Amino acid sequence: MIRFVLDGAVVEVEAGATETVLDLIRYRLRRTGTKEGCAEGDCGACTVLLGELDGDRVTWRAVNACILFAPMLDGKALRTVESLSGDGTLHPVQREMVDRHGSQCGFCTPGFVMSLYGRSISALGTENEPVADVIAGNLCRCTGYGPILDAGEAVPPAATDDSAVAATLRTIAPQNSGTGWFAPRTADDLAALLTANPGARIVAGATDVGLWVTKQYRDLGTVIFIGDMADLKTIAEDADGLTLGAGIRYSEAKAALARLHPDLGELVRRIGGLQVRNAGTIGGNIANGSPIGDTPPALIALGATLTLRRGDTRRTIVLESFFKSYGVQDRAPDEFVESVHIPRPAPDTIVRIVKLSKRFDSDISAVCGAFAIAVAEGRVTAARIAFGGMAGTPTRASACEAALIGQPWSEATIEAATRALAADYTPLTDARGSSAYRLAAAANLLRRLWAEQAGEPVSVLDPALLDG
């Protein structure tokens, strides 16, 4: 049984571990304004807002209902597109969409409206963000986006009074378990649950696991939801670097990562759409072990360490050693990722992180390259280079690093290092790029880094950068 607040009223329903919020909304609550476009968190047609108590206030965030599991609503507030005009009066966002002709077939419109509504109330990830970034996770085949962008700009963010919602949320204590699922509230509880259920599936934001259900129809068995554990949602910054709890969401970590280095903030900006960043977690991106996960190459290049916990025992390892082979990580069945520490780059270190994908927004990496190169008195004194999309795991380019360290910081050294990449990687060919493309792209990222540091003009149309 789960309980959540919908338009001021408490809703209490039985929920299966992997029933999606979208199915709950449409088929049980009969709120059919929320649409299913892709069932994989890519198009945004199913966007809804979730509200959570944050002290005396409510923090709202836009999420994809199609890959969110119903138990993840427990103890929260929900708003659908019907919530905006329950009294028959259009919300200003809806009115602007009408007046500016922001809808044609209308299928995607409820999702756009909810994303823009989130911006109008300063929901998570929208503050000081351009409208184009806020709706990057919403796709439309008809209108061309111009009228939608205009509608969003016409409704500036404004404070809202959520005191009534907060008061109602305080009356519903979240449940800790249901049929086939658990929702621990502390890391100690999680450790005990995993000891008792070592084969249980840990779910943080469900931005990937959700597709296992909606696309592959997999039975996840016993599920442990960890999205409401405060002690895994910590951010600690000091002179040495940044430590993030594994449960911190991308949107929550973005500002701190950008302070550590601007390229980290830009990398997070391109992880899915805002709805994905509002659900997915740093720890989940690591524990998932995908060879094309966005954050691991950057964190490996920066020398990150990972803390894992098993019962009351913790161990800390360098991040690159966590990834053993495709689909295999250095983690026991009853062990979980607790935190990641990212050292602060030294002043003499050149840091560059670049994601290449077919589509700029809301797309998976073809190649993600991360470079941390220290130069002193014209020589390379240290180099850490890591790539995603080049092997079965995110992996350091050890031969490339060796070709740089101790050598003059020069174009000739860079060219030798690019040739060494062939000894580091034998990329596969798939829908996102051929093996030859990936090797050429990785080499050109290093060449581009050199050109930028040398003050040379850089263009993606420069034949020298595209050669190979």
What is the strand and helix layout of this fold?
Elements: E1 2-6, E2 9-13, H1 21-28, E3 47-54, E4 57-64, E5 77-79, H2 92-99, H3 109-120, H4 131-134, H5 146-153, H6 163-169, E6 177-178, E7 181-182, H7 187-196, E8 201-203, H8 209-214, E9 223-225, E10 235-238, E11 241-245, H9 250-260, H10 262-269, H11 274-277, H12 282-287, H13 295-301, E12 305-310, E13 313-318, E14 323-325, E15 328-329, E16 336-343, E17 349-356, E18 367-376, E19 379-388, E20 395-396, H14 398-404, H15 411-424, H16 435-453, H17 463-466
Parallel strand pairs: 1-5, 7-9, 8-9
Antiparallel strand pairs: 1-2, 3-4, 3-5, 6-7, 10-11, 11-16, 12-13, 12-16, 14-15, 17-18, 18-19, 19-20
Helix pairs in contact: 2-5, 9-10, 14-15, 15-16
Task: Give a written overview of the molecule.
With about 475 residues, the chain is of the alpha+beta class. It has 3 domains: about 1-170, Beta-grasp domain (Ubiquitin-like (UB roll), Roll), CATH 3.10.20; about 180-225, Uridine Diphospho-n-acetylenolpyruvylglucosamine Reductase, domain 2 (2-Layer Sandwich); about 235-465, 2-Layer Sandwich (Enolase-like, domain 1). The chain is built from 17 helices and 20 strands. The strands form 5 sheets. Strands 2-1-5-3-4 form a 5-stranded mixed sheet. Strand 19 (about 380-390) and strand 20 form a beta hairpin. Helix 2 (about 90-100) runs antiparallel to helix 5 (about 145-155), helix 14 (about 400-405) packs antiparallel against helix 15 and helix 15 runs antiparallel to helix 16.
